[in-house]
Structures are given as structure tokens and as C-alpha cells.
Amino acid sequence: MTSRPARRRLVAAAAALLAAAATIPVATPAQAAPAGLGNVSWLAAGDSYSSGEGIAGTGGGTDTCAQSTLAYGPKSADILRGQRGWTVTPLAFTACTGATLHEYYGGGGGSNNGHGPQWEQALRKQPSGKRFDVITMSFGGNDIDFASTLQGCLDAPVLADTWTDIVLKEPVGDAPCDVTYDTVRKRIDALLTGDSFTKPGTGFGTGGKLSLAEFYAQVANQHLTKRGTLVVVGYPRLFAPTDEWGGWRNGRCNLMLAADTQMLGQAAEYLDNALRQAVEQARGRITNGTINYVSRFDLFHQNGESHELCSGRTEYLNGMSVGFRDGSLRVMHAFHPNEIGHQVTAESVAGRVADTLDPPPAPSAAASNNAAPATRRPSASPIGNGTSHWNVGDAFRSRCVVAWPTAPVRTTQYIQMRMSCQGVPQQFLFVDVIYPDPKLNVTPSTGSMLVEGTIADLTQSEYGFRTVVVHASRVVLP
Asked: Which SUPFAM superfamilies match (predicted)?
């Protein structure tokens, strides 16, 4: 049992923790879908940063496109189903690892790892009028051959298909990347004008050579409904700024030299600005629907907090790790967004889509000139569907593991663990466990443990990232 002074310290610590997250509202009942919205058709296209490569379980067996329903495209549709009561159908999920811009329309039956052009795949879903209300996509990384650029920067050879082949080889020393920033920048400039470095002369769209902006405009004008929106999603910086690294890293992060990660960061920022520029240029060419840009460069580094590799915070990307939960040791998972990274991206995408298809009402004439404009964001669905017993103040008892890729946070008074627990309703992604013993012998690799306590809060982020907060009175280690 916890003593009263310890319990008071725990409550105070928990209150401080929740106050620091004041922007996360307590779960509220879901809104009903707008009466006139009807079915929302959705196409989730793109490359490995859209397919879910990097999420545990992808890329095995017949899953040659490395697709996951937790990838940001289908996940954002799920958020709007659960939070706003939308009916999303059909949902065409065509994103494929390794895809280039040419493979959206072309490449024949061998494109997209044998699945054929992504637009042809989408048409098999037969949306009304061959148009979609929502199209999400990320393209361009493979066209500038960013994967090979990364391989050329690794402080170890990656000319192998398995992790064993990689880790058993000797490091190559302190040689810098074999591609310079200027080279990458020129590839990005060519991408804007419609030239792919990896597939020269193939073209992005139909009816002649198109610039990247013209490709976006063609997709919107030919494949969106009148109310629809094209959401272009960018690429993040992979590595946190080097001044945020721990000194123990000795100038290296995931087999990358500090100077090389800085160059790659510059390249990522240049690519982000280039994609943003193409979207802005496309906006002036679009006569049907709208276009939005979601910057993962900004999204993974918000309010001065880095979530890139070696940031010392929860990382939204996989590094060169052999610790994937699915046990596949799939090399291609490295340097891709993990499940949390896709969740964060999905929240942002869902917000852009909701603001376009179901915008907030205009302020009334009687409203004060100083009043803030009304906003309507996806809100938490009710704790229903057989889970009505999940209420603040109820007892909690479950077997839990530390959620990958997070680690426990310790203060002088308590330990906080972000966990995945059995029997938790699927609308909650994690359980935040607060326990008044900072010396509890828990690491990210600790197995299943029994957690008992009280549900202290049900929280969610702006777009529906929901978490159960538990004040634990007992934790039994394996």
C-alpha cells in the first residue's frame, strides 16, 4: 500500500504532469457526422512514407508494398470515422514502398512491386464518377534516390539484406557521405521541373511532361470531387540537431557522423521547402477541389521539441535498430516513421481534411469582433461499445509492456511509463502509468508486468490521439 504522504506526492506530480499537457482536453462525446456530408471516398497513395514501412509487421510474405492500416492515410480516415462519425467508403490504399512519382500513373504491371500503377489500383474501388473526396500522398523521396544517399552516409557498409551482415562488418571509418548537399539540392531542383533522378525521362503525369506542381494540379483537377482535397505530405528531418545529442554519442547517431546528419538535415529542409513551393504553385492551377500541405519536417519538431533520432525524447522514426517488435529484422524499416510518427501525421491530416470537407461555421453577425473564430476538431468518441465501464475513478488492472519506442521517465518522486496494455479499448493508443517509486527496475525491454491502480484521466490530443492516465498503486514485474 502507498503511504498518505507518498500518495499526496504522487497526486501532486500527476497534477503537474497533466497541467503541462493542458492543451490536451479531457475526452468528450463524439460529434455526429454532418447531415449533408454523406459517404467520403478516400485514396491513400504514395511511397514507403505513406505505406507504413517502418511499422512493425509490414513487408512480410505477400505484403510487397509494406502496407499497414496504422499508416497515416488509413489512420486519418479512422480518426474521422471514430471522432466525427464520418462514413469513409471506399478507401483505396495504394501506397507502396519504393514507389516513384511515375508509378502513380505509369510503369505498367510491374510498377509498385507488381501491383501496377496506383491510379489503376484506385479505379478498381470504383468511386462515384471516378473521383475521390480525399487523396493523400507522399512522393519524391525515391525520385531523388534518398535511400542510396543515406547508405552512402552510413559509417558502416549496408550492401547486405540482413542486419547480421551489417553489424558483423567493420566500420568504414570517418569518411563523409559520398553525395554532397549540392548534389542532393540539384536532384530536388530537377524534381520540381519534372525530372526524376532514378527514373529519368519517365514523366510524372499524363499528356506530356509535367512539373511537380502541374502533377499535383492534374491529380486534383482530374481525380477530386468538387468538394475534395488533395493532401500532400512531406518528409521529416531524420536526425535531431547535433547540439541536442547526448555527449556519450561521441559524434555519432545511428552509424551516422554528426557532420553528415547536419548535411542530411539541410537536404530535408530544402526538400520540405521545395514540396511546399510546388503545392503553392499548384494551388493557382487547380480548378477543382483544394490542395493542402502537411510538413512532417515541422510536425516532428514542434515548439522547440525534437522527435527525430537521437533527440532524447520520444522518437517518431526508426533508427538502425534490431529491436523491432515483429521480430522481422527488416532492414527497410530503418529511417522510416514508426507507429507514433504515423499517428501524429494522421492527426494533422485528419484536421486538414475536416477543415476542408466540414469547415467550422462562420462567426455570427452578433458575435463580438474580438471573439475567437469557432473551430471544430475531431473529438474523442464516447467510451461505449461495451466499454462504458472505463470512467475516471474506476479501478484499473491489466498486463502491460513499455510501448515501443518509448522509455520510462523518472523524477525524484515517481516514474512515468507509456505502455501498451491488454484489454484496453482500441480508441486508446496508450496507457500512461504513473507510479510513486522512481527506482522501479523497469527498462524499455522489460516484459509483461501487472499494473493495478485507478484511472485518473482520459485525455486526447487535438486530433484524437487518446490516452488513459493511470495512477498505479501496484506494479508486479515479470
From this structure: SGNH hydrolase
Q: Looking at the domain assignment, is residue 246 inside a domain?
A: yes
pLDDT band at 110, cuts 50/70/90?
confident
**Inside any domain, residue 455:** yes
Q: Which domain holds residue 208?
A: 39-357
In 248-325, at which residue ranges do the beta strands (DSSP E only) sit? 252-253, 256-257, 290-294, 301-302, 305-306
How many domains is the chain built from?
Answer: 2
Residue 172 has pLDDT above 80, yes or no: no
265-295: pLDDT as tens digits: 999 999 999 999 999 999 999 998 999 999 9
Q: Do residues 462 and 23 lie in contact, with contact meaning Cβ atoms separated by under 8 Å?
A: yes
Closest of 269, 342, 363 to residue 68, by C-alpha: 342
Cell of 3: 503511504
Does residue 261 register a pLDDT over 50?
A: yes
Is 48 an annotated catalytic residue?
yes
Pair 210, 325 in one domain: yes
Residues 264 and 307 occupy one common structural domain: yes
The active-site residue, picked from 102, 307, 333, 336, is 336
* Rounded distance between C-alpha atoms, residue 453 and residue 10, angstroms: 12
Domain harbouring 290, CATH code: 3.40.50.1110
Active-site pick, 41, 48, 196, 311: 48
| Entry field: residues in the chain | 478
Q: pLDDT per residue over 401-438, tens digit each?
A: 888 767 888 888 889 999 888 877 766 778 999 999 99
Q: How far apart are CA 65 and CA 399, in angstroms?
A: 33
Q: How confident is the model at residue 26, as a pLDDT?
A: 33
- Alpha helices, DSSP H only, in 3-68? 4-20, 48-51
- The verdict on whether 223 is a catalytic residue reads no
Collapsing DSSP to helix, strand or coil, 108 comes out as helix
Q: Which residues pair with 432 in a beta bridge?
A: 418, 469
Q: Is the pLDDT of residue 187 over 80?
A: yes
Other beta carbons within 10 angstroms of residue 39's beta carbon come to 13
Which CATH number belongs to the domain containing residue 427 in this structure? 2.40.50.140
- Return d(Cα 119, Cα 277) in angstroms, integer: 24
